[in-house]
Amino acid sequence: MLRCAKQLLVLMFLCFSVVAIAQRDDRKQKLERQKIRLQDEIELANKILLETRNTKKLSLSNVETVEQKLRLRQNLINTLDRETEMLSRESLKLQKEIDTLEAQVANLKEDYAEMIRQARKSSDNYSRLMFILSSRDFNQALRRLEYLKQYSEYRRRQVEEIKQKENDLSDKLVELNRQKIKKEVLKAQMEDERNKLIAERNEQQQAIASLSEKESEITKELTEKQVQAKKLENEIQRIIAAEIKKAKEAAVRRGIEDEAKRVGLVFGKDFTNRTTNRALNDLIDKKKAELKAANKPVAAKPSAPASSFSLTPEATKLAAGFAANKSLLPWPVERGLVVQGFGPYRHPIAKSVVMNNNGIDIATEKGSKARVAFDGEVSKVIRVPGGAITIIVSHGNYFTIYQNLAEVYVKSGDKVTAKQELGLVYTDPTEGKTILHFELWKETQMLDPQPWLAGK
């Protein structure tokens, strides 16, 4: 029983060790992936800034992109710091293992040296023979002979164990040295990133100071943009409301037609798509009266689930699929940086102006294509005279909106699939910025799109 308990404890310890090692390796890989992603996004930010700076004009988009780059840089420094801390903990643990191994090797060598000294005292064959011959009986002689064999085997195992421990010690020392080198590299990289962060912050402050001189001009420009944005928002709301109304009307029609079929009316014979709802209800009432007069039963009416947005079975499936993919939806551009998040924010230059973002603004490279986040149908392509193009795509009772396009590759009514290209993102020729405005609505409610998008 005691033996089983010991075996169980050993097994539990081994399982715990394996899980702990797996978790540590997973944390290391996660930090490494995060570091690579942040470095890639900083590289993209530099590329976007280079494109905007080629216009020789300092703009708000530069400030927003640099602000995002500063956040990315700080996150990279934090990631490097966590990686360094993890490496320090691992090095400390490794040093303890090395100290333990060194002590074990020293003890084994001391024990082995003592064995050798004792063996030399009785190393001649005569002493061994006398040790066996001096036995009381034959059984004792056999036991003594077995003892000598086991002693010899024990010495051999001691030599092997010393060699194994020394090999383990050598491996640990190599690993410790590798970790020390990596730690120094990380520290140097972190110092370099901190210096870059300081330089970029100084540059950002100078840019903000320069733009602040034009605060009144910027405030006026922002006010005009807010008016334009509100007009577009109202148009989007009108289109979505029309979609909801159309869906409800279609649901009412499906209900009436289902009721007609339930009482025995035949589509194409008794009624068609051209039959109005009122006329069809009259036919239903007439048919019910006939059935009642003939004393014939009518099939029970199935209960319909209550919903604020009546969907077809296909649209219901589409909406469920969209909802199930929260945090997994592909980004609406292949590479991009969120330079302005969802919701209200105070403008960095015109401090008195509070802006409200109905979606997220994604800075991307010149020539980038907007792509649809999920399977759906193009509800509307909105063309503003003298302005950029907006596309609304429905996914059941969810809608995604792609704003600030220069050209489009789809039209209203087109079925689209996830990652399909919708159009070319507009590049401002004056400022050189390429920004896609992306929104997400559930019926008439605006949602923050960022939590719905997949992690990079």
Automatic annotation (TrEMBL):
Keywords tagged on the record? Coiled coil, Signal
Q: Name one GO molecular function term.
A: metalloendopeptidase activity
Query: Span of the secretion signal?
Result: 1-22
**Which residues are in the M23ase beta-sheet core domain?**
357-449
- Source organism: Owenweeksia hongkongensis (strain DSM 17368 / CIP 108786 / JCM 12287 / NRRL B-23963 / UST20020801)
SUPFAM superfamilies xref list: Duplicated hybrid motif
Q: What protein name does the entry list?
A: Membrane-bound metallopeptidase
Read off the Pfam families from this record. Answer: Peptidase_M23 (PF01551)
What sections of the sequence does the record tag as coiled-coil?
21-48, 77-242
